[in-house]
Design brief:
about 230 residues; alpha/beta; 4-stranded antiparallel sheet; 11 strands; globular
Length: about 230
């Protein structure tokens, strides 16, 4: 179901984002990168193909199983099932990435900050962090309440609404007579919100970008990407 809904989020998009990381951050050859909320591993595989050592972490056992299955044994990529609020290691990572709005799930802001603190804990002193999040003003201004499309005979209907400072989505998938419904909900953190959280957990913001090409961030940007460092 996930692959059907997000089929447009493909390997080419992952390559574009990793290009941005290499251009703007310039990780050392063979650097250890931890991908928190790695899903099925498309970004982790891209980093690994470029010679980095990658650890992917995700709450979903099914996603982790698929990530392992889709990753060639020759790649230096390890996938672990775990809660993002628990650090996968202490100071082991040269860089940590948190991509495709894999953040803001928890009802309490303190729990979201706990997840960010865990990612910071995984970084070595002087390590870098890149977060790819939705751009809250753009989401509010361009919200499309309803859309329906069909992929390979499967109908996907999406209903979106904003409530209690969260963007919510109900996804209904219909195939023949079978119907399944899923719900997504993410906190609408702004750039200022995230900047404050970074300060709270000990990250220093270096730059922000508005898309995967590295354009400047504005209220109309399609994405909010934040590049930060853990002080040495």
């Amino acid at each position: 179901a996930y692959d059907l809904v997000y089929d447009h989020r493909d390997e080419a998009e992952a390559e574009q984002l990793v290009d941005l990381v290499e251009r703007e951050i310039d990780p050392a050859p063979g650097a250890h990168i931890v991908d928190v909320g790695c899903g099925r591993g498309r970004h982790a595989r891209t980093f690994a193909r470029r010679g980095y050592r990658v650890t992917g972490v995700d709450l979903s056992e099914e996603a982790i199983a698929e990530a392992r299955q889709r990753t060639r044994p020759a790649l230096d990529a390890t996938f672990l099932q775990g809660d993002m609020r628990d650090a996968p290691c202490h100071g082991c990572a040269d860089g940590v990435v948190n991509l495709f709005t894999t953040f803001g799930y928890f009802e309490a802001d303190a729990e979201n900050e706990r997840a960010l603190a865990a990612m910071t804990t995984a970084l070595r002193p002087g390590g870098w962090f890149l977060q790819d999040f939705l751009n809250a003003p753009q989401v509010v201004n361009t919200l499309q309440p309803e859309d329906t499309h069909t992929v390979n005979g499967v109908t996907i209907a999406q209903h979106r609404w904003i409530e209690n400072e969260r963007i919510n989505k109900r996804i209904t998938i219909t195939h023949d007579e079978d119907t399944e419904t899923y719900r997504e909900s993410v906190r609408l953190f702004t750039r200022d919100d995230l900047t404050t959280m970074y300060q709270n957990v000990g990250l220093e913001l270096v730059a922000t970008y508005g898309d995967y090409d590295g354009a400047p961030h504005t209220e109309d940007s399609p994405r909010l990407l934040l590049y930060a460092r853990k002080p040495a």
